[in-house]
């Protein structure tokens, strides 16, 4: 065989081998590992996100209480690729110094997510217009429009919540991959709980760019582009005028108001005082005001309506009466002696002056402590349990069925569960089966280890209004005009106490207004039912409490009011509750009691800061 033939074979074999190598490499590039192809596509294609308008929030009467405003962020794409960049021209455009530019670039590089980062956030309108005009010269940058929130009513900040930039940890926790760096998410209140329907669905535009990053054309003629779908409108259960009125009544006071529609569990107003203007928590203002509010000693960021926990005081006597009646250890004619209180040996629980042998109704009208100390004794020692532990657990189970001792499951964050101590707790404190009613006598009058939130107390008022049942309180009633709230808000929950016994207690609550501790807070023309509470406070003045509902037949509103460090329940909490009920039930008329209204709004009960 000639040398030329050998050379031909070698050349042909080399061509075959090289072709095979190229085919194998191409196979790996296109089939086995597509990262290079994806990188090429990423470099030649720019994705523009189309942000939907966040869903509006309206009150129960259709008044828009949360709507949208525009916020503008300057984004940087691939912040590590800034070679041959006209820094001087960019600084002139953005009004940054060279040092500020370098600092922002370093921050963007440190916070890059999916190749993008925020360079400047919340551009003011003048600067936005200036940058927009000259940004085409800087291909790595683009402006994205976000949805900021605005509020026409200076009310309801704790309930509505706010939106803010999503954190890195929140990004890592999201399972659907919806969010990107620099985007905004609901952080509290309605905004957080109903984030998914409120946020809408983002749209995307795909563009082809040249080697300088400039848009050349629509990618694939725009066939992959999608439109944004705006968020859904939420109908809240709030009456915004009632909410605003409640915040006015509670100004310069520490405490809360919760008003509920008994027949549905819908929250009509949820006031926590001190309050704040929700516009302080818009995207543009959040950084400026959040720290200021967080440092405030009066804790305006705390939603006291759901997170503050108090002994219920004399309000608890209503529940004691209901359990005693249901257990059969007392009747309407049962009388107990009260000689300035309850006495056994050296134990003395004091009481104020009234007739010496009250029956059940009179005990509620005058808020007799001795009556309920005796009632607890009868429940624990004459009730259906064979042992003190069984009787106590039976009593405690009634409280749990009232929704006490755990969170109710409200659709607003910060909710606390309060406390209803277990028998095991007292075993640990006093020894197993080494305690009786005398060791826990303070529970009978709503003191001791019992802790309820104002939300729970308002729910107790709703239960009594409904004669024994409730719906889990909630602040949203419809989504896009249709029922779409969680099923648990629609489930009727029973206490297991008969209508007959609720009627007895309701009649007594009516007389609290007619001739009892709330006589000074009657509403002309409305048959209201209520109960005052004065809660012992070891840190200062007693807390003023009151729960009520109205009208007595077919109740439309149930309410709880707490005013901290203000004394008797009849002095502050009862008048505020009656003004709120009057406002809701008679919305088209001015108050019948202008003097009472003036006294409430002008009352300043804020503690004096001696520092």
Distance between the termini: 109 Å
CATH C-level label of the largest domain: Alpha Beta
Main sheet attributes: strand count, strand direction, barrel closure: 6 strands, mixed
Radius of gyration: 33 Å
Shape: elongated
**Strand-residue proportion:** 15-25%
Uncertain segments are none
- Any idea what the CATH architecture of the largest domain is? 3-Layer(aba) Sandwich
Helix fraction bin = 25-40%
Q: Within the CATH hierarchy, at the fold level, what is the topology of the largest domain?
A: Beta-lactamase
- What oligomeric state do these chains adopt? single chain
- Per CATH, the superfamily of the largest domain is DD-peptidase/beta-lactamase superfamily
Tally of individual helices: 21
Count of distinct structural domains: 2
How many DSSP-defined strands?
A: 20
Determine the mean pLDDT: 89
What structural class is derived from the secondary structure elements? alpha+beta
Task: Describe the model.
With 611 residues, the chain is of the alpha+beta class. It has two domains: 191 residues, Penicillin-binding protein 2a (Domain 2) (Alpha-Beta Complex), CATH 3.90.1310; 354 residues, DD-peptidase/beta-lactamase superfamily (Beta-lactamase, 3-Layer(aba) Sandwich). It contains 21 helices and 20 strands. The strands form six sheets. Strands 2, 3, 4, 5, 10 and 16 form a six-stranded mixed sheet that branches. A five-stranded antiparallel sheet has the order 12-11-20-19-18, sandwiched between helices. A hairpin with a 7-residue loop joins strand 18 and strand 19. Helix 13 runs parallel beside helix 15. The longest helix has 30 residues. The protein is elongated, with a radius of gyration of 33 Å. The termini are far apart.
